[in-house]
Amino acid sequence: MTQQTDNAGFTFAPLLLLFVPYAGIVYFLQAREVWLAGIIAMGVITGLCLLLYVARNWQEIVSGFLGALLLMAILAGCAMIPVVGWIADVLLILFAFGSVLSSIGALLPYAIKAALIWAVFLISLLPMVFHPIISPAVIFLLSVGLGSALAKKQRPTDEFILMMASTPLLAMAIASLGKLLQSGIGMRTAQFQQNVSAHSRAGVQVGGYTRMITKTVPTITTTVNPVAAAIGTAVGEKKPEDD
Q: Which residues cross the membrane (predicted)?
């Protein structure tokens, strides 16, 4: 998906999504109510940015989701084949680990920046810190500074949306990694068809026949989250770059 480069001079996304809600909280609510309202605003803004991120990168997310489902379908098809199914399990786990770790590595810097921004946002609303003039001025300067810094990026709006949405995306990637770490190697029994050729038994000629035999084969138990893999693919492919 091709996206146009935003205005290279200044981006108003931080002012719209940080300062405007903050100013509304300060203007309409009492001092004892602003901190709780700030927490609610943080959740709403994070959720909105997550929806915007998905909307702006839906093609990459859908393709990653379908790719993950295809891998899982191939694994399911190969699971009943001795040796091949075990190798397919190993390859899938390696792919999943690489994808999730790559997503975590890409999202972590954004999540740290978002945590610092929200820390300033919420601390300035604490009853013992809040000031009806100084606190909004601090958030205004923070928003202006972010707008100026992000303007140096190739896609500043995408950069800001990804930053604000990085916390839930990172949580999903970590949860997917936790599921993968629960993977293990176990043993299961499987039935296979065996053709027996004609032979002689105790002087009696026995014709060829087919029989079912039971074997114990190794298997890998793994849980792969296709949604997390899809979002990780989108983060890797659409991660905003500097000029």
A: 12-29, 35-54, 61-84, 90-108, 115-140, 160-181
Q: What angle do CA 6, 10, 13 make, to 5 degrees?
A: 75
**For residues 202 and 115, is the Cβ–Cβ distance under 8 A?**
no
Residue pair 125/42 in contact (Cβ under 8 Å)? The answer is: no
- CA dist list (Å): 35 to 32, 81, 150: 7, 59, 27
Q: Could you write out the DSSP letters of every residue in 224-240?
A: --HHHHHHHHHHHHH--
Confidence (pLDDT) at 153: 86
pLDDT of 6 strictly over 80: no
Give the residue among 180, 172, 181 at the shortest CA–CA distance from 227.
Answer: 172
Residues 6+ apart with CB under 8 A from 67: 229, 230, 233
pTM of the model: 0.73
What are the structural domain ranges in the chain?
13-183+223-238, 184-221
For tokens 């100013």, the residue is 23
Looking at residue 242, what is its pLDDT? 47
Predicted local confidence at residue 54, as pLDDT: 87
Give the phi and the psi of residue 207 in degrees, each rounded to 5: -75, 165
